[in-house]
Specification:
- With about 450 residues, the protein is mainly alpha-helical.
- It contains 17 helices and no strands.
- Helix 7 (about 145-170) packs antiparallel against helix 12 (about 260-280).
- About 55% of the residues are buried.
């Protein structure tokens, strides 16, 4: 990678507010992933390795994301920095409650379920607000870079967190890991409060009431947004249940302890981190083809991971799978976010979050039950084949859409020829025609059928 590419990869960090945000997020995300390891290991210990019980925890944590659309509405209507401060304080309080119960030796499975549910409610507001807030920190030009760097620091935390959690659980127990997680939220709060509000690049607020239904209609009327959203839904449902599958693989397939579980999580996160660093060089909106090929690659990698014959090969293949999973998620995220009008971005990213992570409750219950009866490898096989199938369906739909647009343009050209309408340079055709949203020809985002506001990056 050339010096200029390296410099561009970290360009967003030249913005003071984003540096503060990223620094707090690294600490907080590391604590979160430490908590994931501690919580999952605690559940497996309380239930003698039940995949169903672990699936219920995951489902409860993600089920409240059904309210994410309302969280996106709040993000488009209110100050995002204030919302994020309140959400992080609430998450820290929930983690502290569970830590006290664990240290007291009185924690029960229903306590974990209740705290997971509470965290899911908070995340329904925090996640879409955080995604939309990045654009206010750096502006549209640096948004792809900042988004990729966000994925990078998240996966740095995902590498460091589980490894440190395995060590601390061995030395001190799960309760103290949860205490560390509770304290880590203060880093994000400190970063948010140290920002200079006058340097935030806030767009104009929407005139009139901000409605969830308006955001849904906006995505519905934008095929270039709705296709990746649907693809994300299919893959999120079946293929991204690694939080559930990795502890089951460690414990039931490779008969490994908590440290080895931490290594598996670290391998997956290491691949995701490399993927995030690769995508920092992205300068514009990815094509639909990129999103589809990324989904196909994820499916192949996940199938290969399910076939891993031993622990060492599993680590390598999980690294590849982590790379593919993050590359797909980033490609879909950038295509959706960079094609959205800032006035709708909170609600659009809320829908993206709902589809990506809100599908996890159903998927985790299905995959957890399948893994318990057919083995953890079966969950990887299901996810891999589902990704491949979803990618092929999306490719077929995209090809059909292209054919339909070509037929429509050909028909318009014939009509123009019959009526004697001439395009530029005296050529008979539709090169001077405008699409239904005022975008000239098929050259705008979404092949000319995109909303005109999508021209804003």
């Amino acid at each position: 990678m050339s010096h200029s590419r390296i410099a561009y990869a970290f360009r967003s960090l030249s913005v003071r507010n984003f540096r503060l945000f990223a620094g707090g997020q690294v600490v907080s995300a590391a604590g979160t992933w430490m908590m994931v390891v501690a919580q999952d290991w605690l559940v497996l210990g309380l239930t003698d390795g039940s995949g169903t019980a672990l699936g219920v925890v995951t489902a409860l944590q993600f089920a409240p994301l059904l309210f994410t659309l309302y969280g996106g509405r709040l993000a488009d209507r209110h100050d995002k920095r204030m919302l994020l401060t309140a959400a992080n304080l609430a998450s820290g309080a929930l983690a502290l409650v569970l830590a006290v119960l664990a240290l007291a030796g009185s924690v029960q499975l229903w306590h974990i379920w209740l705290c997971a549910l509470g965290l899911g409610v908070v995340n329904a507001v925090e996640i879409p607000t955080r995604m939309a807030f990045v654009s206010e920190l750096v502006g549209p030009e640096l948004l792809p870079n900042a988004s990729a760097l966000s994925g990078a620091y998240f996966n740095i935390a995902r590498v460091a967190g589980p490894a440190l959690a395995g060590l601390l659980i061995t030395l001190l127990g799960t309760g103290w890991v949860m205490v560390v997680n509770a304290a880590s939220y203060l880093a994000t709060v400190a970063g948010l409060r140290m920002m200079r509000p006058g340097e935030l690049l806030r767009g104009a607020r929407a005139a009139g009431p901000v409605k969830v239904s308006d955001g849904l209609r906006y995505v519905r009327d934008r095929p270039d947004l709705s296709m990746p959203v649907l693809l994300v839904g299919a893959i999120g449902l079946f293929s991204l249940n690694f939080q559930l599958l990795l502890p089951l693989l460690a414990k039931t397939v490779f008969d490994a302890g908590v440290n080895s579980f931490g290594l598996m999580t670290t391998a997956y996160a290491g691949g995701a981190l490399l993927s995030a660093l690769v995508t920092t060089s992205r300068r514009g909106r990815p094509a639909a083809r990129t999103v589809i090929l990324a989904a196909l690659g994820l499916g192949v990698a996940e199938i290969a991971a399910g076939l891993a014959p031993n622990f060492g090969s599993a680590l390598v293949l999980l690294f590849v799978t982590g790379f593919a999973a993050l590359y797909f998620a980033q490609a879909a995220n950038h295509r959706i976010q960079l094609g959205s009008d800032p006035a709708y971005r909170g609600r659009v990213m809320a829908l993206y979050t709902l589809i990506l992570q809100g599908s996890t409750p159903l998927g985790s219950l299905l995959v957890g039950a399948l893994a318990e009866h057919a083995g953890a490898r079966s969950g990887l096989f299901l996810g891999g084949f589902a990704s491949v199938a979803a990618a092929l369906v999306a490719a077929a739909a995209a090809a059909r859409s292209v054919r339909n647009r070509s037929d429509g343009l050909a028909g318009a050209a014939d009509a123009a020829g019959v009526e004697g309408v001439e395009g530029p340079a005296g050529a008979t055709g539709v090169t001077g025609a405008t699409g239904p949203t005022g975008s000239t020809g098929p050259t705008g985002p979404g092949g000319g059928w995109a909303h005109k506001s999508a021209r804003r990056p």
